[in-house]
Amino acid sequence: MTLYAKLNKEFSHNFLGYSALAMIVSTCLGGIAIMTTLMHGHDALQMFLVFISVAICSAHNASILTVQKPSIVFHLFTSSVLINTLLIIGNSI
């Protein structure tokens, strides 16, 4: 069993608690990603990167609020963390 499968199973088992934590983590990482993006100006590229961050964070938060399946919420959470982390690293260099 892979690490991803183990984490998905654990997330599904304790869905309510992890959903609250995931919403906080996703939103905070999104805010940091947007801050680091806007530190480089407000051209079309930066606005596109802000749009990407807001879209993935909103999709994740909406999936929790509309009580989607735990696997969908987990997939959106991991993609939100991955995309926002890449934006933070890319804009910090």
Summarize the structure.
By secondary structure, the protein is mostly helical. It has one domain. It has helices spanning 3-13, 15-38, 44-65, 70-92.
Task: Report what the structure shows.
- This protein is an all-alpha fold and 93 residues long.
- The chain has one domain.
- The chain contains 4 helices and no strands.
- Helix 2 packs antiparallel against helix 3 (44-65), helix 2 (15-38) packs parallel to helix 4 (70-92) and helix 3 packs antiparallel against helix 4.
- The radius of gyration is 14 Å and the shape is elongated.
- The termini are far apart.
- The chain crosses the membrane at residues 15-35, 47-66, 72-90.
- Keywords: Membrane, Transmembrane, Transmembrane helix.
